[in-house]
């Protein structure tokens, strides 16, 4: 019998380890205890015992369901996406790494099957999502501690529920926490076709903000441009167009952005900085190019630009579960109002996980892979 719980990676900075340790000690009980089972009718889970290429190290295994304790919740998973953070965690280069062997998946939605004797506020049939990363959502069912779960309304689309707790939360917090933007103000972002990027476009539109959205050039660029504009994007330009002097003409009829959102790094982030208004802020939440953010001295001195970073796991540590629940309910309201939809998704049965993992790591793929149970 082995217990899966959170474990810090060797590369995690010491202050962050100390700062998050208490919350992750509480979270460790969230993951279920399993043993290998020969009964294929029991839990099926995507498990990895070593870090490496997800297609090579992840295996579909049969596991035994843990006993239901008094403070536990038996959950049948409905759907769970494959996010970049999931890939990074399996590769071993994420800020939080679970103890191995581990069940993959940081996000998803499940339905309550049964609750322990001391559990209140949840009942069979309720929908729940993970309260924190590292829960292990790529499995058909599991027993989790109640503290590891957040109830959500079951009247929203399944794909929206499955992709609710990471990308839309990141997008909303970055839009409202770093600059006091008002309706009519503008935001510029790269990786605009990513899950976060699509959420930024929609939430910004709901807040009355205008967006300049940068994407990599690709054969179907017109199709992508049309899809992002259907979501509410005002301008969609390629990385190459961003570097052209003519780009400044965009800001003749709209204010210069006071907020830039960077998920790429390297030259792309430098170009975002160049178009920021004086005193503006660039928030970095990813590094797809695996290149550092480079800011010229002149931009920092003469434009007084600010460079910040954002990580949702750290935000939740500082703000607590109650504020995270309020954020989730705010996003659910936007979903009900038709102002926030799930990113473009491809549903893949759990047994076809290798195809889904491979597709999630392909370049220029704008469709998020969602494992269905």
Automatic annotation (TrEMBL):
Its EC number is 1.3.1.104. GO terms for molecular function: enoyl-[acyl-carrier-protein] reductase (NADPH) activity. It catalyses: (2E)-dodecenoyl-[ACP] + NADPH + H(+) = dodecanoyl-[ACP] + NADP(+); (2E)-hexadecenoyl-[ACP] + NADPH + H(+) = hexadecanoyl-[ACP] + NADP(+); (2E)-octenoyl-[ACP] + NADPH + H(+) = octanoyl-[ACP] + NADP(+); (2E)-hexenoyl-[ACP] + NADPH + H(+) = hexanoyl-[ACP] + NADP(+). Keywords: Fatty acid biosynthesis, Fatty acid metabolism, Lipid biosynthesis, Lipid metabolism, Mitochondrion, NADP, Oxidoreductase, Transit peptide. InterPro entries: ADH-like_C, ADH-like_N, ER, GroES-like_sf, Mito_Enoyl-ACP_Reductase, NAD(P)-bd_dom_sf. Its main location: mitochondrion. Pfam families: ADH_N, ADH_zinc_N. Residues 53-371 form the Enoyl reductase (ER) domain. It is found in: Mitochondrion. One of its GO terms (biological process) is fatty acid biosynthetic process. GO terms for cellular component: mitochondrion. The keyword Iron does not apply. Catalyzes the NADPH-dependent reduction of trans-2-enoyl thioesters in mitochondrial fatty acid synthesis (fatty acid synthesis type II). Fatty acid chain elongation in mitochondria uses acyl carrier protein (ACP) as an acyl group carrier, but the enzyme accepts both ACP and CoA thioesters as substrates in vitro. Displays a preference for medium-chain over short- and long-chain substrates. May provide the octanoyl chain used for lipoic acid biosynthesis, regulating protein lipoylation and mitochondrial respiratory activity particularly in Purkinje cells. Belongs to the zinc-containing alcohol dehydrogenase family. Quinone oxidoreductase subfamily. This is Enoyl-[acyl-carrier-protein] reductase, mitochondrial. The lineage of its organism: Eukaryota, Metazoa, Chordata, Craniata, Vertebrata.
């Amino acid at each position: 019998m082995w217990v899966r719980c959170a474990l810090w990676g060797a590369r995690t900075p010491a202050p962050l380890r100390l700062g998050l340790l208490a919350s992750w000690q509480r979270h460790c009980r969230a993951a279920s205890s399993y043993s290998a089972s020969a009964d294929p009718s029991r839990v099926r889970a995507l498990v990895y015992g070593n870090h490496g290429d997800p297609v090579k190290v992840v295996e579909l295994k049969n596991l035994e369901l843990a006993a239901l304790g008094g403070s536990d919740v038996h959950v049948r998973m409905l759907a769970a996406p494959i996010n970049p953070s999931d890939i990074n965690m399996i590769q071993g280069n994420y800020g939080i790494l679970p103890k191995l062997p581990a069940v993959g998946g940081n996000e998803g939605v499940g339905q309550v099957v049964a609750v322990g004797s001391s559990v209140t506020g949840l009942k069979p049939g309720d929908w729940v999502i993970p309260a924190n990363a590292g829960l292990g959502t790529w499995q058909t069912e599991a027993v989790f501690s109640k503290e590891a779960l957040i109830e959500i309304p079951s009247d929203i689309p399944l794909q929206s529920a499955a992709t609710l707790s990471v990308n839309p939360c990141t997008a909303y917090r970055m839009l409202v926490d770093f600059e006091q933007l008002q309706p009519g103000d503008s935001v510029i972002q790269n990786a605009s076709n990513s899950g976060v990027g699509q959420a930024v476009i929609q939430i910004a539109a709901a807040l009355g903000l205008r967006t300049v959205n940068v994407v990599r050039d690709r054969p179907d660029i017109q199709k992508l441009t049309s899809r992002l504009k259907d979501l509410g994007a005002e301008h969609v330009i390629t990385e190459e167009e961003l570097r052209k002097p003519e780009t400044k003409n965009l800001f003749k009829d709209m204010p210069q952005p006071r907020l830039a959102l960077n998920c790429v790094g390297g030259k792309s982030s430098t170009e975002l900085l160049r178009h920021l208004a004086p005193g503006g802020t660039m928030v970095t939440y990813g590094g797809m190019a695996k290149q550092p953010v480079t800011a010229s001295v002149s931009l920092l001195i003469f434009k007084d630009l600010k460079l910040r970073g954002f990580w949702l796991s750290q935000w939740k540590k500082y703000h607590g579960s109650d504020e995270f629940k309020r954020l989730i309910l705010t996003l659910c309201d936007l979903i009900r109002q038709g102002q926030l939809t799930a990113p473009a998704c491809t549903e893949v049965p759990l047994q076809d996980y290798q195809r889904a993992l491979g597709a999630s790591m392909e370049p220029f793929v704008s469709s998020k892979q969602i494992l269905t149970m």
